[in-house]
Amino acid sequence: MATINIKKLVPKQATYPGEHLLDEIQAREMSQKDLAMEMDLPKSVVNEIIKGKKNINTDIALRLEKVLGIPAKFWLNAQADYEIDKRRVEEKHQEFVKNNEIWSVIKSYIRMPFFKREGVITDDLKQNINIIFKVFAVSDLDGFVGRFAELEYQRFRKSEKSNIERNSLVCWVNYVKYKASQLYVSDFNQSEKEQVFKAISEILYKNKENILDEVKEVLSSYGIKFLIVPKPKDCAVDGVSFWSENPTICLSLRNKSIDSFAFTLFHELSHIYLHLVNNNRKEYINLEEKHQKEEQEADELASKLLIPDDVWKKIKSINFHNESSVMSVSKHYGIHPAILQGRYSKETNNYKIKKIDKDIRQVSFTEKNQ
């Protein structure tokens, strides 16, 4: 059973000793005038003590002891407790005001609906500040604000074309890093690249209901952290890859079709083996618009690993509108039919292709993973 630290408890307001005195004389049916007379003090002094305008000193405490029979030490302790509580209440108020000012700044940067959805924001103001600082890996407000000014985010500006709101992106990426820091996986060995892609390809082909759990389990066994964090509003981000003691991948599942999921996953894995193993201080954010050379390189490798060039040359002329043709090729090469259709749609810019069936282009995500 947890114990309560009494010293840390702060009352809503300090109780001055005059309140105890008032209770005592009322219980004795004694007037302030009578008490003043017996204490040999002006009535105004007694009134000021009761109202908390005058402190109880040693002389007054001894007079009260003589008249009421209550030890002088009680009154002196009551006065001391009042002074301590009063100071603590003042400090608590100052802290409250300061925290409100800090939170006001934080709110202007973060996306509240996103952090509420993730269970980060509670009803405790101080706790909210502390957890946000942890999420952004900073110790103060200056560090927090600085996160939004970092160079890697400067190129992101919201536009009708990109549908990227920079602050939403910064919140998502930093929260992903925070979550990743809590994951522990096996040691990473970059020489196991082929085994990784082969194992994931087999999982994608089968497309079982627990596909996300299987992907996470396999990647973890090869020393790669994998997590899913849905994106905030106004943030058309598909994924991110970076180094968090181990190579790390996070997907937003913005598009839940199996071909989109597969390509995004392979894109981020490509970043690991092409770029992060050579510079683990970088991070790669997967967005709709891809102008950087490294993003294009990851796209190219992902395409080749999902469907090898020699395989694509043999099958690209088939009728992708014909179910039996696509299913036959899919079975022969062990490639999910939706991935084949996705490649065809991208290369021909034909996205009106008829879906083979309702499940082919859907990732069977369980409810807990959505």
From TrEMBL:
Pfam assignment, any one: Peptidase_M78
Domain HTH cro/C1-type: 21-75
Coiled coil: 277-304
SUPFAM superfamilies: lambda repressor-like DNA-binding domains (SSF47413)
Keyword DNA-binding among record annotations: yes
Keyword Hydrolase belongs to the record: no
GO molecular function: DNA binding
Keywords per UniProt: Coiled coil, DNA-binding
Similarity comment text for this entry: Belongs to the short-chain fatty acyl-CoA assimilation regulator (ScfR) family.
Protein name (database record): Putative plasmid maintenance system antidote protein
Gene source species: Capnocytophaga canis
